[in-house]
Amino acid sequence: MTHAWGILAHPKREWQQIKEERETLTHLYEHHVLLLAAIPVVCSYIGTTQVGWSLGGGTTIQLGYLDALGAGIVFYLVILAAVYAVGKVIRYMAKRFTRPPSQSQCIVFAGYVATPMFVSGIVAVYPLIWLCMLAGVIGLCYTAYLLYIGIPSFLGIDSEEGFIVSSVTLAIGVLVLEALLGITVLLWGYGERIILSLIGG
Fold it and tell me: For the purposes of burial, counting CB atoms within 10 Å of the CB of 65, is it exposed (0-12), middle (13-18) or buried (19 or more)?
């Protein structure tokens, strides 16, 4: 968890430290991703069951505890898979360079790059659509910054090549984020209706 604070406060120094530790995927998931990915899930669970999603115009959708639990489990698994998928994208992009990083390095990198997105999930405790969108945009902007400074130093790709990898990764990351936001709204906002329609059908 020390890296979580370091990557937000002094990312350049932290990237070097993480690189020197040669972290494994198991360690990354056990000590970073599994914990931080729980932030948006737990906060969404609390917000959805206690406050309810505010869609504007006085409309609020509130889920029961069991419905929210089911949505939370799916949401959590999707986040974990998204980290892995972004790592694979980085690996695919980096293959053409002279000394490409390993797949493990790329997934570790993706796990730490996602830190601002995980932390921004705190706002889901009070789930207003516009507030969650704002937090997501801020998290995405800081994630972009981490990408641009981290790819050359952590993955050993020079700045010019790193810019290309960063740009493509960011573009795909935005698509992943949009998909996650869509899934979030469906699961947490309309989860009960979807479940009821499936049971009814």
Answer: exposed
